[in-house]
């Protein structure tokens, strides 16, 4: 049985990936997460007692801690999901993005090199390719052209990964996925903002004209693809991940209002995001042909299920609204120690 260091496992994708791996593999997982505002251990409450899962609170920028974890738990490989992930926050303040996304990735790469780890997966993003015009899609050969401080920090990390493969033979792979949706997404991102505001009949803030296009994929399909790349991807390669579900933001917001039976009068046009990327679309033919991956969730069904999940998890939403989620670690992990 192998042991994986999975970083950022208290976030949206990381927590879904942990649940997926516990369900479908026999790996042991050490989840290293700094519990920033985006880290929520309540996301893992249903699996927190699983003997194959260990949680360590700390930052991926802490080289000594990463070193100790790898030695103590005999870690074989790393999946790096930890990141500052929200574009709007990177526009307000870029420094934390460079710290975690660039310096943190460098710390993990140095550790992978030092300990001779068998595998390193960098969870990157399609945003490193920049913005598309009305036609075409990002392939792995599309030049990197990031437009936001967030995507610039992710692209910088990708270049470090590439350099560690070529210079130090670190057996790394990179995934670049499009916009994820599904359960446990922090309500600062588009979909949960739209769903929660619609449920509470508050205005839905649409940036600019709302005609920007995102290419949506259910987080479960992303997790399956990540594990396939981690286990079967070729060292040094980049794999795009996407499910061919392009939608203008306004269209998605309208679908959510329809699903919840709310009026379109809630749609509220607000000042556009500076440097807003107009369109993303992923060409995922490489992972499809080389590794046989296929998405399993249609957007219409996945969106309905996601709306239903938020409706059924009002307490989870409320704990974020009040800030109580930030005490979860103290309340559930540290008592008696
Ligand atoms: P998220 O913001 O929900 O979660 C990020 C997690 O990382 C949080 O638990 C946070 O506490 C943790 N973290 C932040 N800084 C840390 C540090 N210094 N050390 C340890 N942990 C730290 O993000 P997400 O949406 O789940 O994204 C996960 C990864 O996937 C990111 O690398 C992101 O760039 C990438 N990605 C996201 C999407 C998407 O649509 N959400 C799409 C493609 C790629
Ligand atoms: O493409 C992958 C990326 O998708 C990930 O790398 C990022 O971590 C993730 O945050 C996401 O980036 P986006 O900028 O596309 O996601 P966001 O949810 O912030 O916004 C989606 C679209 O919706 C975008 O065009 C901006 C718009 N938007 C967003 C919010 C939060 C609104 O119109 N209103 C809003 O309130």
Total number of distinct structural domains: 1
Structural class: alpha/beta
Unreliable stretches = none
Side by side, the strands of the main sheet go: 3-2-1-4-5-6-10
Helix content, binned percent: 40-55%
**Element order, helices and strands?**
EHEEHEHHEHEEHEEHEEHEHHHH
- Distance N to C terminus: 29 Å
Bound small molecules, by name, code or SMILES, are: nicotinamide-adenine-dinucleotide, 2'deoxy-thymidine-5'-diphospho-alpha-D-glucose
Rg (C-alpha, Å):
19 Å
According to DSSP, the number of beta strands is 12
Could you characterize the architecture of this molecule?
The chain is α/β, with parallel strands linked by helices and 337 residues long. The chain has one domain: 3-Layer(aba) Sandwich (Rossmann fold). Helices cover 42% and strands 17% of the residues. It is globular and about 55 Å long. The mean pLDDT is 97. It binds nicotinamide-adenine-dinucleotide (NAD) and 2'deoxy-thymidine-5'-diphospho-alpha-D-glucose. Nicotinamide-adenine-dinucleotide (NAD) binds at residues 7-8, 10-14, 32-36, 38-39, 59-61, 81-85, 100, 104, 123, 125, 154, 177, 179-180, 186.
Key terms:
337 residues; alpha/beta; Rossmann fold; three-stranded mixed beta sheet; 12 helices; 17% strand; binds nicotinamide-adenine-dinucleotide; binds 2'deoxy-thymidine-5'-diphospho-alpha-D-glucose
